[in-house]
């Protein structure tokens, strides 16, 4: 079997050496080059034609984000970002995902040698996933790409038109549940920006490490008509709001009288993930039942597939993203195979179909939805 061929791009000689060592320990991958800056990387990519590159964010001569934008316009390929776990690092990493990076690794700020070795399994797993990901050409003109440090949460100029019909009490009674992993930050954004201000509450588990979900929620809050925030334990879940599981914590929903509340808890990983889609979707089946709407978006693995089938068995209506629009088709494919999905749709059609279904039933008894 041919090995996955990787070029490492990082201005630190130590990091380049460590990443190359981690990669070369794997029987199915090989570091074929290590570049100290994007100009050297450009020549390596041209001459060596790697399958995947790992890319540092902050480098001399050209910022990693600027290089990524050029790369994804001219020669799209799988990229795994290597970013620092800081507030600015989170914002820049989210911008990289927006530009088409498949995933990211948050390298430690101190103890880099030991820290990267501890992340070896995560790094190599993300490289494997990236090698199989569907990568698309970036069509954004260079002049339109904001600088890496710009406020990523500014609203888009051409926001979707507000929904003309009120959803009435369905906004209060229904809850939308979203599960996503690799490629999911942008897929979730695509769903949320197309929801009206009076949409039912949305509860989201996106596989993300601690330190990134708050910046992600802030970014989405500036793009969407609904309010988006990182979920807090015990808070009431309200219509017109979206709640994102904090990185490294499980999110579920509970009933408190007539209200739904968010439960944010520590615990063991489920399906190797924390937060886990399985935890969220199981609570949807148990607590929300027929008033739940499930959405499974792009991601590797099977996290949440069985629980989504439990949601369907409890009366929910479920959507799965189709293969053609996924970065990685793993999680939706497993949900479909489990019989959990009522509809399999391209990403761009999920929010419109969901809202049309809600509007068409807004005047009916909730028991008939």
Describe the structure.
The chain is α/β, with parallel strands linked by helices and 369 residues long. The chain contains 13 helices and 14 strands. The chain has helices spanning 13-24, 38-48, 64-74, 87-99, 112-118, 120-132, 170-173, 184-192, 213-223, 277-288, 305-313, 330-337, 347-360, and strands spanning 4-9, 29-35, 52-56, 79-84, 103-107, 175-180, 201-206, 227-230, 241-244, 250-256, 259-265, 292-296, 317-321, 343-345. It has a 7-stranded parallel β-sheet, with helices on both faces. A 5-stranded parallel β-sheet has the order 2-1-3-4-5, sandwiched between helices. It has a two-stranded antiparallel ribbon with strand order 10-11. α11 crosses α12 (330-337). The longest helix is centred in the C-terminal third of the chain and has 14 residues, at 347-360. The N and C termini lie far apart (51 Å).
Summarize the structure.
36% of the residues lie in helices and 21% in strands.
Strand order of the largest sheet: 8-9-7-6-12-13-14
Kindly identify the CATH topology of the largest domain: Rossmann fold
Overall number of strands: 14
Radius of gyration: 21 Å
Distance between the termini: 51 Å
CATH architecture heading of the largest domain: 3-Layer(aba) Sandwich
Q: How much of the residues is beta strand, in percent?
A: 15-25%
Class based on secondary structure composition and strand pairing: alpha/beta
Helix share of residues?
A: 25-40%
Overall 3D shape: elongated
Give the quaternary arrangement of the chains: single chain
**CATH level 4 superfamily of the largest domain:** Methylesterase CheB, C-terminal domain
Query: Total domains, how many?
Result: 2
Number of H/I helices: 13
Low-confidence stretches: 141-164, 364-369
What would CATH call the class of the largest domain?
Answer: Alpha Beta
Taking all residues together, what is the mean pLDDT?
Answer: 89
- What is the helix/strand order? EHEHEHEHEHHHEHEHEEEEHEHEHEH
Largest sheet, in brief, is:
7 strands, parallel
